[in-house]
């Protein structure tokens, strides 16, 4: 990747995010993140997005595999997946600078409808890291650069976003992205099941019913779900529940027992055991540390 492109992007992020943290911007679907120090491993759920590191480096653990990426690679997430992530390279003088762009299935579908993009292949897992492409990085730089000219955001942001989608669809990760909008495909049915789990996380999970809803046998549903998300349906629901309980305790001030019941746990002791297994410390200790740091990002 060209040094000047990376430098330009870093300058834009520094201007609009002069402190550590993650911040949404005036451009819909665009967030910037900055960290001046390495961070501890944090369990999070990534929604469909692309993440670009302009400076520094991160590690992501997905499906038991540790993936590292920096400005030479970018991360694509095509379906909501639970991961563990941390910043591994960052200093005060050279903070880790990141760009997070949500992906719009409708825009992907428009390209597929146009017939200019080949159809999707067999389903693949919902997260991948690939080497950066100059054409895509240039488009991302222009997209983020609109923050310097707010009057241009309305007219130009949709056009550049459409170009970025095209660059991804015609690149190495095109098949993975096409899964998001392939009507009736296995990946889209698993995506619908993931969405159901997120919207009904406090309800008991009946895999057979969810499989029927996805028009698959229970065994096929379990296989494809784990292939794409890296977890079984039950493991996935558990991770979603723990993440939401964590958010309720940090943002809404709920105690552990109340948060546990809110997300579907009937036993506070089981909740505490599983919370500690996921986040490494008991709920009260974890929440206290998060409130002290005032920073909960992936």
UniProtKB/TrEMBL annotation:
Keywords assigned: DNA-binding, Transcription, Transcription regulation
Database matches in SMART domains: HTH_ARAC (SM00342)
Keyword NADP in record: no
Top-level taxon of the source organism: Bacteria
Gene Ontology molecular-function annotations: DNA-binding transcription factor activity; sequence-specific DNA binding
Residue ranges annotated for the HTH araC/xylS-type domain, each copy included: 191-289
Pfam families for the chain: AraC_N, HTH_18
InterPro entries reported for this sequence: Homeodomain-like_sf (IPR009057), HTH_AraC (IPR018060), Tscrpt_reg_HTH_AraC_N (IPR009594)
Record-given protein name: HTH araC/xylS-type domain-containing protein
Organism annotation: Tuwongella immobilis
